[in-house]
Amino acid sequence: MTIKPFLRPRITGARFAGGAIPLEVLADFAVLSEMILEVYTPQQISDILSAIVTLDSQEPKTGKKDRLASVLDFACGSGSLLLNVRKRMGSHGIGKIFGQEKNITTYNLARMNMLLHGVKDSEFEIFHGDTLLNEWDMMRELNPAKKPLFDAVVANPPFSYRWEPTDALADDVRFKSHGLAPKSAADFAFLLHGFHFLKDEGVMAIILPHGVLFRGGAEERIRTKLLTDGHIDTVIGLPANLFYSTGIPVCILVLKKCKKPDDVLFINAAEHFVKGKRQNQLTQEHIAKIIETYQFRKEEARYSRCVGMAEIEKNDFNLNISRYISTAIGEEEIDLTATHAELSSIDKTIKSATAAHNNFLKELGLPPLP
Length: 370
Known about the structure:
By secondary structure, this protein is of the alpha/beta class. The chain folds into two domains: 19-323, Vaccinia Virus protein VP39 (Rossmann fold), CATH 3.40.50.150; 338-370. The protein is built from twelve helices and nine strands. Strands 3-2-1-4-5-7-6-8-9 form a nine-stranded mixed beta sheet, with helices on both faces.
């Protein structure tokens, strides 16, 4: 297989948007197409994550950072998220790109994707191995001075992935302070892995199923600690049916080790989309609104709200967005005094008109109206 036919899309005008291999090109590979759809992060969601992690962590309203020393995606798939961050920062705006992928075929695809988009092999490192078992030797460094830390962490890990938590993992430095995610859903295990390697001034944005916001048990304990420690900055609810592989609604959690506001920003973007034949779509206006709301911490009725920790604690650290942002349209309040006055006026008009009409009827020798 040569590179030239791989680069030639079948659809006129197709291009490498956002630094990811377009689906039109990838579809040429029948063996890979189904797998690629499972690991592909839609461009519209990728744009949101890359915008969030490239803004200043403490003062997002000041705009994009000048440079990121490093960025990590620990479940990188084809590498599209990493390339989208690189596109936003510019080819010289990131020191080095780091990714990890368990599937060997997808791992090779990610490496090829980097090279096809002009990333030199000295500018990226993709590791083939299990993230949850932390098989990457670089990540197992015990010396705090040599521990790898990243300015930005982005991820779209497999949703509610079944895993095998063990006693050894319970003592793992990544999970020890928060506890292990349940066997039925490794969502918080993935989150804690990435968060462990985030710099103090860094930003992490991760795509997860809505269940992480409200499920009980071990997940509730992990969520509670993250909240009480002040690490969850923003919760963004997205519409259903945005992904090629699943129709479930998802959320984006934004985490920081050091954050200024003593509250959590909730953004309910679930109703803001354009319905498509197969997948729903976010327009550029929808994407821009989410990013701007996060950047300037804007509040808007039925869309976004900053919620203090006291209210979240009253809700037992449940982050279900509907608890904090009502999407119901309230009924218009009726002014009874004004309504009574209007009805009285109408009644007088009716009586006056009836009296005038009855005068005409009397002249005509006809019986009057009651």
